[in-house]
Amino acid sequence: MLLRQALSEERAAHGDELQPLPNVPTREQIQTLEGMLLQVEAQGGGVAIDTWHHFADGLVARTILIPAGTMLTGASHKTEHLNIAHGDITVWTEAGMRRLTGYHVLPSLPGAKRVGYAHADTWWTTVHLNPTNERDVEALADALVEDTHTLQSRRLALKGKPLESLS
What we know:
Elements: H1 2-14, H2 27-42, E1 51-56, E2 59-66, E3 71-73, E4 81-93, E5 96-108, E6 115-129, H3 137-144, H4 152-155
Antiparallel strand pairs: 1-2, 2-6, 3-6, 4-5, 4-6
């Protein structure tokens, strides 16, 4: 995979400068890794991740499928919300780095920034309150996400198909 190759090349080029993340990585360490991943993406590497949005009265869920072998960082959200993971992923949680296999529900505090590595294809869904029942996904991203510029859906204009169109 291009990302693994790029990270291997980066490690070879920088040696000890590229350390694995500690059990509780700092925000600065996650942002440094995110910068490296964005450089890989700018050079044509990286992985396209589609996004699907699901709506219910007062709620919005955003789902992505993370392919096996993908390292990624998440966007910081403005509000407390739930994360639902199904697959096999090592991810930063409020309890430190954890390998999650199977099905997990994780609460997330405002401002949390995650980093993860998918060992197998992993579904990741965030569930947020949506009291105005907003359906415009760009407006929702602006309302819910602190660092919208980090959303791959904005950088690459990837648009997942709405759930209704999959049936």
